[in-house]
Design goal:
Elements lengths: L3 H31 L4 H37 L13 H8 L3 H14 L4 H14 L3 H14 L3 H17 L1
């Protein structure tokens, strides 16, 4: 987690320095205004503005960093998973290559590693019915999923998908 206290302490010191620099710049510009018009007062004005640029540079980078950090945390949370997320790419690739038994086994392994993942059960039922034409295997996977899945919404989704696939085959 970001330690904002330390960041704001550093920003406070930089702000104090920048305010001193701005004060010097203001004195230079006011001296130029007191001198009246002409080329001499223009030199004071340019010097004063240059000093303001230095003050902006003192504050610019750290202030931009704080804003970027804050906005970045809004978009990208620091949520971490205690367990790796399921990887569906390998069994999907095997299914696309026509290696249906290996794809089924890959999804079966995923369902064992991540028992609450609905997608693995749906994919196994789909492979069993569509590719392998094995109604008993699909029914077995369906009943296993209904026993293992903890959320009612997941069980309802599994039932809907199972009934849909059975009706199509």
């Amino acid at each position: 987690m970001i330690n904002y206290r330390d960041i704001f302490i550093k920003l406070g010191w930089r702000l104090a320095l920048a305010l001193m620099v701005i004060g010097v710049g203001s004195l230079v510009i006011s001296k130029g205004l007191a001198a009246g018009g002409g080329a001499g007062s223009m030199g004071y004005f340019i010097l004063g503005m240059s000093i303001f640029v230095v003050a902006a540079m003192i504050m610019g980078k750290p202030l931009a960093g704080v804003v970027a950090e804050f906005l970045g945390n809004l978009i990208y949370t620091s949520e971490h998973y205690s367990k790796p997320q399921p990887v569906y790419g390998i069994p999907e690739a095997k299914r696309l290559k026509g290696l249906f038994q290996e794809a089924f086994e890959g999804f079966q392994k995923l369902s064992q590693e991540h028992p609450q993942e609905l997608r693995a059960y749906i994919e196994m039922i789909d492979i069993a019915l569509v590719e392998m034409k094995n109604q008993d295997l699909a029914s077995s996977v369906y009943h296993c999923g209904m026993e293992v899945l903890g959320k009612q919404e997941a069980r309802e989704a599994l039932t809907r998908k199972y009934e849909e696939l059975v009706a199509c085959n």
